[in-house]
Design a protein that fits this description.
The protein has about 425 residues and is of the alpha/beta class. The protein is built from 14 helices and 15 strands. It folds into two domains: about 140 residues, Aspartate Aminotransferase, domain 1; about 240 residues, Aspartate Aminotransferase, domain 2 (3-Layer(aba) Sandwich), CATH 3.40.640. About 35% of the residues lie in helices and about 15% in strands. The strands form four sheets. Strands 2-9-8-7-6-3-4-5 form an eight-stranded mixed beta sheet. Helix 4 packs parallel to helix 5 and helix 4 packs across helix 8. It starts with 19 loop residues before the first helix and ends in a 7-residue tail after the last helix.
Length: about 425
Amino acid sequence: MNPIQRSNRLHGICYDIRGPVHEQAQALEASGETILKLNIGNPAPFGYSTSNAILDQIHNNLAASQGYAESAGLESARGAITDYYRRLGFDDIAADQVYLGNGVSELIMIAMQALLNSHDEVLIPSPDYPLWTAAVNLTDAKAVHYQCDEASDWVPDIADIRSKISDKTRAIVLINPNNPTGAVYPRQILEQIVAIAQENDLIIYSDEIYDRILYAEATHIPIATLTDDVLVVTFGGLSKNYCVAGFRVGWMILSGKLSSAADYIQGLQMLLSMRLCANVPMQHAVQVALSEVALPGGDLSEAECLDKHHPNNLTKPESRLTQQMELSYQMINQIPGLSCVKPKGALYLFPKIDIKRFNIKNDEQFVLDFLKQKKVLLVHGGGFNWQQPDHFRIVFLPELQQLQQALNALGDFLLDYRQDS
């Protein structure tokens, strides 16, 4: 019998957040080792949980959630999302511009499948969240990576974006706040990207899943609030802001220049219908999560002020998450051979490693060696489509003591680490 081969479309596709090094970690666990998994932004295993109000809303609606819902999502959820984004500055959006999905990941795949033909191109940041590159390449289109500038707090390099536009370019992707770097983009950069999209008739896809996880004085500006002349597809969800990654509740909002997108929207609706609907019970969480939440900087009720799960409290200066970010940033920059830009949002740091000092030729080998010796799982920079073997991503979700132990282990590992030539 001839071996059964994978599809040619999967050649070159990777998702190294759960790739070969993760498989090695699973093998070590199976042999009895305890692995600290700093490879994925999954709040629940590290003691983060959502509010009882969200859980109660789901429990109370389970009996009514046994049938299919409308493909676009529950009316209550879409209405709550619409109201919330109007308060954020989205002008003239209606519930029929909102689509619910089984997490943002599913919606990214659908958005790309509905748009792209063979040999089309999409501009994607480097480093990126790798699902974006995979989603484009799986359609037989081409992901073209533009550089983000580490020396300028990891903001997109506008000149590099312009240099990579061709007659095949269909769209530009933003990840803001950024995964893996933690960058939060200033208005000036966003306005320049809007101008580029308008000049070249591009769609903007804006992944804003971390829009409430902001540190210090960082302010998130939804790019859709800056233009009515460009089609913008904004992605958001509950998984990070409300610490319910396993619920798989995401959404996308179409706004701006809708008049030219009727055929594309019909394509989206067709694909959404083919998967019937998103998970119905979990959609009931949306209304209570968004309708009772003050916006960043807004007034909270007394009960909300005491609720550590409230997203406005998640990154206060005294919060656990902020303290973990600060500790990670300080300790990494104290390790000889490492440096790191301080994140302004999200759950990650993306440190730079001195490859000459450690003779690093293969960043995946570096994180694998660290895993085997210290039993801590990281992700190499190449997993985020960063082309040099000089970065890695670390999740700072563990409690302070556990995080300190992991970073001490990293410093100890690097004292005498050198890759074989």
